[in-house]
Amino acid sequence: MTLFKPCMLAILLAASPLAVLAAYPEQPIRLIVPHPAGGSSDILARTMAASMSKDLGQSIVVENKGGGNGAIAAQSVASAKPDGYTLLLATASTHGINPTLYRKLNYDAVKDFAPVTLFATVPNVLVVGNAHKQMNGLKDLIDYMKANPGKTNMGSAGSGTPGHLAGVMLKDTEHLDLVHVPFKGGAPAISALIGGQIDFMFTTIPGAISHIKAGSIKGLAVSSAERSDALAELPTVAEAGVPGFEAVSWHGLVAPANTPQQVIDVLYQSASKALNNEDVKSKLGNEGAKAAKMTPGEFGSFIQAQIGNWGNAVKSSGARVD
Questions:
Q1: What percent of the chain has a predicted confidence (pLDDT) above 90?
Q2: Model-level pTM?
Q3: Which of 23, 48, 112, 260 has a Cα at 20 to 30 A from 221?
Q4: What does the alpha-carbon distance between residue 25 and residue 48 come to, in Å, rounded to a whole number?
């Protein structure tokens, strides 16, 4: 029987898939963010990328690819080579809302991706304008809407956004009759709230907190199951009288389907180290986010549950897109 010489065996092992995986990563990694640069999602992604880059010994380069409520970025990653060098910042929109919002979506949020981990949850805050500054809490707003059916304008950053759908969840739970007024982004919606064109809205904490502190709008409650450190004085919607209410935005990391498990494990361990870093947790908190960590399997189950939860609100809202 012919035996391989030691040098030949070493060459074969070096070229084997196991050796390649053991060396991962050997080049920079692309992290596709489904939103423009400078926004809260972009900042959260760059915070994680910077910490993980130091741990992995390779740069994680953030690339912004907006459009289609995140669908354009998600599709580009779904079709990328499953080698661990192209990742997606998965969000409540790309992997919770879009599967129901779009009747013809060019990716499958479950089958086309390999989950890595959830890393942050971001509650929305329910705010009212100057016309309702006398309200002491969410109950006052709900009582007002029930006493004035069809006369309350709810603003949002756009149809099918988490803020819009959080409002739909509140409407359905409390059997409210209100008018939805969508805007092209959170900033113009808040301007309309300050100007009195709308009565209330759910919006991101980073986009609202300076206006709340200045007194130009008033926060009544946050949409998460727990209070937000950024607005600790505000109760949750559940605490304010709507039991079981929860509607949070979130951010996680996913890779294309069929990415080797060894690569997923490397990325998960690196993300876990980042989330144990107090500086990283502080930077996430500055964006109104709370650090969260799930194993790849837990994150996969979470995504499937989110599709169902957000899907019910999408159907109720009538905001589906062809």
A1: 83
A2: 0.87
A3: 48
A4: 16
